[in-house]
Write a structure and sequence with these properties.
Length: 293
């Protein structure tokens, strides 16, 4: 069932128009058709935001502080004592460094990424790093107490296959922490026709509502422990950018709607924080799923 269509508003890597469709049975949203695997180098250009080195400006410092508070929550969920963590899609090791900085000294930290250059940068930071797809990853007899997957499951071909593999990598009682867009926020409802920032045409291939994500993880054997709605400033800003760009506004105006614009960031942090505090959903969700003991 047709849900939305649009172009690559952010990077203009191709002229194709893409569409999201909704499964009538499970309500899952997925990109159809999808780019070919040989096109990944095109749709993820060299200036893609995830490849950029993190700066030391105000926005970057506030982001690190906020993520540090997340690490303290991870400690509560995984428990005290030596714990082994795996970061799927670790990139250059930025989040592993935050785990290292804000977590206990006896945590053992590892990452996996399919990009060999990113993995090498992660190793240079001092973290054990594996190269390849997690679906094919075999750590031998070793098992993990915690696996994290932050803003990645929406990019993959088969999220359920990854969830099943993570289940097998965890010790009984271990936790799988997933952050991914949520098709339940106010900005999704406002911009769902074509411009919602988390469509991220054509790089997001799967999008979940909270019930759909919980159902997928439960079907893979997990027990859902909690769901939190997090601030999603970039979704608001990029949605506005896409809307104004698609409606022919001048470039000098649309450039102002950048995900690092501190004025817009401050405003949308306030909006999302207030909405979450009042019990509403935002367009960014975190689900903590546990492998039964």
């Amino acid at each position: 069932m047709f849900e939305a269509d649009g172009v690559d508003f952010e990077y203009a890597t191709c002229a194709n128009r893409f569409q999201f469709v909704r499964c009538p049975d499970c309500e899952h949203l997925y990109l159809n058709p999808r780019p070919r695997s040989e096109d990944l180098g095109t749709i993820y250009p060299e200036n893609y935001y995830a490849y950029a080195a993190e700066g030391d400006g105000l926005v970057s410092r506030l982001r690190r502080r906020w993520e540090g508070s997340k690490v303290r929550a991870y400690r509560e969920w995984v428990g005290d004592g030596p714990r082994r963590w795996l970061d799927i899609g670790c990139g250059n090791g930025r989040f592993l460094a935050l785990l290292d900085r804000f977590g206990p000294a006896d945590w053992e930290l590892e990452g996996i990424d399919f990009d060999s250059d990113a993995a090498e940068q992660c190793r240079a930071r001092g973290y054990r790093t594996h190269v390849g797809r997690v679906e094919e990853f075999d750590p031998g007899d070793a098992r993990y107490d915690g696996v994290i997957m932050l803003q990645l499951i929406e990019h993959v071909e088969d999220p359920a296959a990854i969830a099943r593999r993570v289940y097998s990598l965890l010790r009984p009682g271990g936790v799988f922490i997933v952050e991914t867009p949520n098709v339940g926020g106010l900005d999704y409802r406002w911009f769902k026709r074509s411009w919602w920032g988390h469509y991220h045409f054509p790089r997001h291939w799967n999008l979940f509502s909270t019930p759909a994500l919980a159902r997928m993880l439960s079907d893979c054997g997990f027990e859902i422990e909690r769901t939190d709605y997090l601030i999603s400033t970039s979704a608001w800003t990029i949605s506005l950018h896409n809307y104004f760009l698609d409606h022919g506004y001048p470039q000098w105006f649309t450039r102002w709607f950048h995900y690092r614009n501190p004025v817009l960031l401050a405003w949308f942090v306030l909006c999302d924080a207030l909405r979450a505090r009042l019990g509403g959903q935002t367009s960014n969700q975190r689900m903590v799923a546990r492998r039964p003991r």
